[in-house]
Amino acid sequence: MIKRQDINIGDHVIENDPDKYTPNPFKGEVTAIIETGKGDYDYCATVRLDNESLANPYYKMISEKGHINAFGFDIDHIKNKIHVK
């Protein structure tokens, strides 16, 4: 889970849905952030999938031109790949 104030465009993230186990979570770089409310997790991030994720037929099928939308409570930062302003 990433709070809105802790995520920036350029951050590298990984899928981490607390409600379901994903054997091959998607990974990628945040390219856009859309706020949907005023809460800490009220936003949607557009993630450009990395090559490894695009090789997965499921993510390739559900992505649009290599991008996928994810809510803040379904993603985490990839350690050592946090974008610094």
How does this model look, in words?
This protein has 85 residues and is mainly beta. It has a single domain, classed as SH3 type barrels (Roll), CATH 2.30.30. It contains 2 helices and 5 strands, in the order βββααββ. It has helices at 51-54, 57-62, and strands spanning 12-15, 27-35, 43-49, 67-71, 75-77. A 5-stranded antiparallel sheet has the order 4-3-2-1-5.
List its traits.
85 residues, mainly beta, SH3 type barrels, five-stranded antiparallel beta sheet, globular, Transcription-repair coupling factor
Q: Give me the secondary-structure category.
A: mainly beta
Shape: globular
What is the number of independent domains?
1
Largest sheet: 5 strands, antiparallel
Name of the top-level CATH class:
Mainly Beta
Beta-strand level of the residues, as a percent range? 25-35%
SS field, number of helical segments: 2
Question: Whole-number average pLDDT?
Answer: 90
Cα radius of gyration in angstroms:
12 Å
Uncertain segments of ≥5 residues (pLDDT<50)? none
User: Strand order of the main beta sheet, please?
Assistant: 4-3-2-1-5
The overall strand count is 5
Protein name: Transcription-repair coupling factor
